[in-house]
Specification:
By secondary structure, this protein is of the alpha/beta class. The chain contains 7 helices and 11 strands. A 7-stranded mixed sheet has the order 5-2-1-6-7-11-10, sandwiched between helices. A two-stranded antiparallel sheet has the order 3-4. Strands 8-9 form a two-stranded parallel ribbon. It starts with a helix and ends with a helix.
């Protein structure tokens, strides 16, 4: 009986599968990106693409780890994706923020009312574009930008945007996104895998 319930639950999530795009640039903070990817996978309701903003798939993280992305952002049809996640890492955020390709993708998602989530230094990109104006948000202290209302906490949701403070809140950030995007029911799958609950 319990096996049947589990299979049914997974099938229901797959019917409502959402597609996430995590944008990667050299210097990205690997825990923020890969823990988020892992949590989305465990949710049973989110299919994630790690997208390189460069012209090749090979990237180097903020601590020198070599990572291979799934695809090039330039090759993707953005209409197929439901939301974007921006990981932090000082150099990674500088590279994301200076990319015309990233700016174009963010503008498209913002204009179409699709969700954009960011952690650590990355909310500064959204603040610089005016997307946090009048909103509550959090980022790594010192990276506040724009006319939003910085909150001294770990994770903040305001409208269709979830922001996270730092690497230490990566799992909380990812769980908040998963719960928001596909429903709180996915947390049972997530916590079973990461907490043994």
């Amino acid at each position: 009986m319990s096996l049947s319930v589990g299979v049914t639950t997974r099938w229901v999530y797959n019917l409502a599968m959402k597609k996430a795009l995590i944008l990667l640039a050299d210097g990205f903070e690997q825990v923020e990106a890969l823990a988020t990817h892992d949590v989305f996978h465990r949710s049973g309701g989110i299919k994630t693409t790690l997208a390189s903003i460069k012209d090749n798939l090979e990237l180097v993280t903020s601590s020198g780890v070599h990572v291979k992305a799934d695809a090039l952002l330039s090759d993707l049809d953005l209409d197929e994706y439901d939301f974007i996640v921006l990981p932090g890492g000082k150099l990674g955020v500088e590279n994301l923020g200076s990319s015309p390709l990233v700016k174009k993708a963010l503008e498209k998602f913002h204009d179409e009312g699709k969700h954009i989530h960011a952690i650590c230094a990355a909310p500064s990109i959204l603040g610089g574009l005016g997307y946090l104006d009048g909103k509550n948000y959090v980022c790594f202290p010192g990276f506040q930008k724009g006319n939003g209302h910085w909150q001294d906490t770990g994770v903040v949701k305001d409208g269709g945007t979830i922001t996270g403070r730092s690497m230490g809140y990566s799992v909380d950030f990812a769980c908040a996104i998963a719960s928001f995007e596909v429903g709180e029911g996915c947390l049972k799958n997530i916590y079973a895998g990461i907490r043994g609950e």
